[in-house]
Design a protein that fits this description.
This protein has 330 residues and is α/β, with parallel strands linked by helices. It has eleven helices and eleven strands. The longest helix has 14 residues, at 315-328.
């Protein structure tokens, strides 16, 4: 009941406050993302594999692909997969583990990994996303990996009924391909879900202030995060029912300042969440034209916040973990 009052305060006051603490099954926490958000989802999964049990990756490169080098990010990790050495990335992962910078990679074996790549994607080529699957196969059995690579989609989050034409490249980077990618992903990660509601409950979507969750003495803009994020809390979850938690990372040029609430309302996640007691967290980046240099509002997958961008102490990953802990009461 306390969670309902907190959410009502977020909605009625119209101002961003702290996240509500909810009754979350801590063994049922997953992440997803598109483009830079897909890379971020992978980073959070690998860094916190003891907490994250499933990941959905839309057009995302493998872990540590950019190796803290923007030139590698814009070549090998987007358009030239022949330059990607999976063994080098695995070695880097093992090195991070040896430094206790990430959770044990043994946890990955029980994880669920869903990967999407559009046939017509000209931004992150299918060969790059194939490398993501190859990377995960070092730890995850094939039975726990699902790849969707047959749709004629450009670079986008894909839906069944909302967005641009499937083959279109452009804002808001949500394409209607007559395919329910959010549902396919969530069903693979969690299984035994019921069909989504026809419409999400608009009253269940609220904003929260991200400054409460950044590292100590760090303001959101200093690590290219927006002032506010969004949380979707299904009606039953507001009343104390045990629920799951899913964290969704938007892509570059898909942040609140650029596309408004388009992603948080039209990804298709909220309808599945309402029907299946899944709380959805939508953290937000912001564009940063100077320091750190992030002119397209991407999540950090090449090191603009520092060399530790892909491990637990990364300021963005730490912020997301603080958000998860706040919602779960950890």
């Amino acid at each position: 009941m306390a969670a309902r009052w907190v959410l009502l305060a977020l909605l009625v006051c119209g101002s961003a406050q702290k996240l509500p603490q909810l009754n979350i099954n801590k063994k049922q926490i997953s992440v997803s993302g598109v483009s830079s958000g897909g890379a971020m989802a992978t980073q959070v999964h690998v860094a916190h594999s003891s907490v994250i049990m499933g990941v959905g990756i839309f057009a995302g490169p493998p872990y540590w692909c950019a190796q803290a080098n923007v030139e590698i990010a814009l070549s090998a990790c987007t358009s030239d997969p022949n330059l990607i050495s999976i063994q080098e990335l695995v070695d880097a992962t093992d090195y991070a583990l040896a430094l206790d910078s990430i959770d044990s990679t043994k946890n990955l074996a029980s994880g669920r990994v869903w990967i999407f790549s559009g046939r017509l994607d000209t931004i992150v080529k299918q060969g790059v996303v194939n490398k993501t699957r190859e990377y995960y196969r070092r730890w995850v059995p094939d039975s726990n990996i699902k790849s969707i690579d047959w749709l004629p989609s450009q670079h986008a989050w894909v839906t069944k009924a909302y967005g641009n034409n499937c083959s279109y490249l452009g804002s808001p980077y949500i394409n209607n391909c007559n395919f329910d990618a959010a549902g396919d992903m969530l069903q693979f990660i969690y299984s035994n879900l019921i069909q989504p509601t026809k419409n999400a409950n608009n009253g269940s979507l609220a904003i929260y202030d991200q400054k409460y969750y950044t590292p100590e003495a760090t303001f959101p803009h200093e690590i290219s995060l927006g002032d506010v994020g969004y949380i979707y809390v299904p009606s039953t979850c507001q009343s104390g029912t045990e629920c799951r938690l899913h964290v969704a990372f938007h892509g570059c040029n898909q942040d609140l300042e650029t596309v408004g609430e388009t992603f948080v309302r039209n990804s298709g996640l909220n309808e599945w969440a309402e029907a299946n007691n899944i709380v959805v967290l939508y953290p937000q980046t912001r564009k940063s034209p100077d320091v750190p240099y992030n002119p397209q509002g991407c999540w950090d997958w090449w090191g603009y916040t520092g060399l530790d961008y892909a491990v637990r102490i990364s300021p963005q990953i730490l912020t997301v973990r603080n958000m998860i802990d706040a919602v779960t009461g950890s």
